[in-house]
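Our consortium's second objective concerns turning raw sequence data into structural hypotheses that experimental partners can test. To show how far this objective has progressed, the report includes one record in full. It was chosen at random from the queue rather than selected for favorable results. The single chain below, 168 residues long, was entered without modification.
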Amino acid sequence: MTKPKKQPEGPKRVRMVGEREETVEVPLSTDDMDASTEKMLTLLEQRDSIDEKAKEIAKNYKSQGATLDLEISELRRAMRSRKRSVKLTIQEWLTESNEIIRVRADTDERIGDVRKARSEELQEKLFKDELGSDDGAESEATEEGDDEEEADANPFGDTSDDFGGSAH
């Protein structure tokens, strides 16, 4: 035999007239409070972790966007001007007419306008001419014949230079 349910406190119940699910507030026990506190702390840590990841992702997207914006801007400028900026090695050459020309090192193509050489550029040329060419092949070839030329140029056999050192 089944034992009849014990009647709760309050008025006597006669029969059930309906049943439904409802959300109602009930007081929490101490165990329920401890469990809720633990769960809350875990959820807050997860939320902080997600926020940090979201910030890192947003920073990465922002950086990628800035890179794309820069590239788009450069392409737009190039398309408008029909020119683009390229990093190249440019050589400056002094011509026989004392002008400076700029030349691309990779293609030997002239770049820009010709300009007059500045005085320091002209003096640099004179200084190199007095000391001899700075081209390695020429200096080796002239060194071999230098001793004979010096002997012919100096009939006294004096091999010291003006500073008291030896010319050899």
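The partners drew two points from this record. The first strand starts at residue 90 and ends at 94. Residues 39-80 form one domain. Both points have been shared with the crystallography group to help prioritize constructs.
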